[in-house]
Design a protein that fits this description.
- By secondary structure, the protein is α+β, with helices and mostly antiparallel strands.
- The protein has one domain (about 5-80).
- It contains 1 helix and 8 strands; from the N terminus they run βαβββββββ.
- The strands form 3 sheets. Strands 1-2-5-6 form a 4-stranded mixed sheet, with helices on one face. Strands 3-4 form a two-stranded antiparallel ribbon.
- Strand 5 and strand 6 (about 60) form a beta hairpin.
- It starts with a strand and ends in a 7-residue tail after the last strand.
- It comes from Thermanaerothrix solaris.
- Pfam families: NERD (PF08378).
- InterPro entries: NERD.
Length: about 90
């Protein structure tokens, strides 16, 4: 089980909650998951959903709660949202 540092905000989406649950239970103990860490670039601060650190590098994850990917290719994607409209 991976180590988790930080916590999700109260209004976290279902997808963010499920992703954290999955990462925590499926990644080995050598992995560290930072939850919504502040990343600074000059005066701008961003908060990606997760940063996963490994012995080999890191992965930054931003979770999107899309309902269905209708179609996708290397140049574009059509996504159906919860309101059943396409984005």
């Amino acid at each position: 089980m991976a180590e988790v540092i930080g916590y999700l905000r109260n209004e976290a989406t279902y997808g963010e909650q499920e992703t954290l649950r999955y990462l925590r239970s499926h990644l080995p103990k050598e992995f560290v998951i930072y939850v919504e860490p502040p990343l600074r670039k000059k005066r701008d601060i961003r908060h990606p959903d997760f940063v996963v650190l490994t012995n080999y590098g890191y992965v930054v994850l931003e979770v999107k709660d899309w309902v269905n990917i209708v179609s996708a290719n290397p140049h574009e994607a059509v996504i159906r949202g919860r309101d059943h409209g396409c984005i």
